[in-house]
Design a protein that fits this description.
The chain has 276 residues and is of the alpha/beta class. The chain has a single domain (5-271), classed as P-loop containing nucleotide triphosphate hydrolases (Rossmann fold, 3-Layer(aba) Sandwich), CATH 3.40.50. Helix content is 45%, strand content 11%. It has 12 helices and 7 strands. The longest helix is centred in the C-terminal third of the chain and has 17 residues, at 255-271. It is globular, with a radius of gyration of 18 Å.
């Protein structure tokens, strides 16, 4: 059994899909922008209910969270059973062990890319994504037991608070890990996307890199979503791809909510340069 999983991990709305679109365009050496509705073929999510059905040999009740947790090891084992050198797996789960089951087990893991985003901005995208108020979004991301409940096609996801999620993925692990800030990807995509390619062992070709960055720009992704839709967009969300900008919180987030986030996450925000 190979340790072949490379995790693409993040709290929701922190740049995971953007990074996946970049990698798909780069690795496919696309001459035209890949359709955003083909990107799901590049890597797989770790919470797809059909995978849990497959290893169980029957259609399971996704609302039985203990059952889905108990099947986790078999799901990941099925992923690495293809004997490939690399299997990209997308996750929003924290690196935790509910009911003593490791969601991110070392025995299957080759490496990980972890993307974090300033929670003051992330919470605005989170609110839009789940069609909830900013206040409700703040309450969720500051709650230590925050989770995504099972929905058709997807099993439960264990998020925790933003800070605890970051700490879980940035603490010690016996495998290589690249920690990226969403804001650095915005300001210098060539440098930081090159780090992703280095981690996965792919040579960096400057022309190919530039093309993949252009093909995964937010303008391109938004245009594609407008013309063809995006199959990964939740039904309750008006649009998946937003402006992709930073510092929107300064005009769009209520000051008292920003204060709540700073009070909850101050140490972690300071560590990663998110406190002015």
């Amino acid at each position: 059994m190979k340790k072949s999983i490379i995790w693409l991990a993040s709290y929701p709305k922190s740049g995971n899909t953007w990074t996946r679109v970049f990698l798909a365009n780069y690795l496919m050496n696309a001459k035209e922008p890949l359709s955003i509705n083909q990107v799901h073929n590049f890597g797989m999510g770790d919470s797809m209910a059909r995978t849990y059905d497959m290893v169980a040999g029957r259609k399971i009740d996704i609302n039985d969270v203990s059952l889905t947790i108990s099947l986790r090891d078999k799901v990941l084992g099925a992923i690495v059973a293809n004997n490939a050198d690399v299997n990209f797996v997308i996750t929003h789960n924290a690196k935790v062990s509910p009911e003593r089951v490791a969601l991110i087990p070392d025995k299957y893991t080759r490496s990980a890319v972890y993307i974090m985003r300033n929670p003051l901005d992330m919470v605005l995208s989170y609110a839009r994504h789940y069609a909830i108020s900013n206040a409700d979004a703040v309450e969720r991301i500051t709650h230590p037991d925050n989770a995504n409940a099972p929905v058709p096609g997807t099993v439960a996801q264990f998020l925790g608070s933003w800070a605890n999620h970051v700490k879980s993925w940035t603490s010690y692990a016996p495998w290589p890990r690249l920690v990226l800030r969403y804001e650095d990807l915005l300001s210098d995509p060539h440098t930081h996307f090159s780090k992703v390619l280095d981690l996965i062992g792919v040579p960096v070709d400057p022309e190919r890199l530039d093309r993949a960055i252009r093909f995964s720009s937010f303008d391109e992704l938004s245009k594609q979503e407008d013309t063809q839709g995006f199959i990964e967009k939740p039904k309750e969300s008006a649009k998946f791809f937003g402006k992709g900008q930073k510092d929107q919180w300064k005009t769009d987030l209520e000051p008292e909510l920003a204060d709540t986030i700073r009070a909850a996450f101050g140490d972690t925000m300071k560590r990663y340069g998110y406190l002015e």
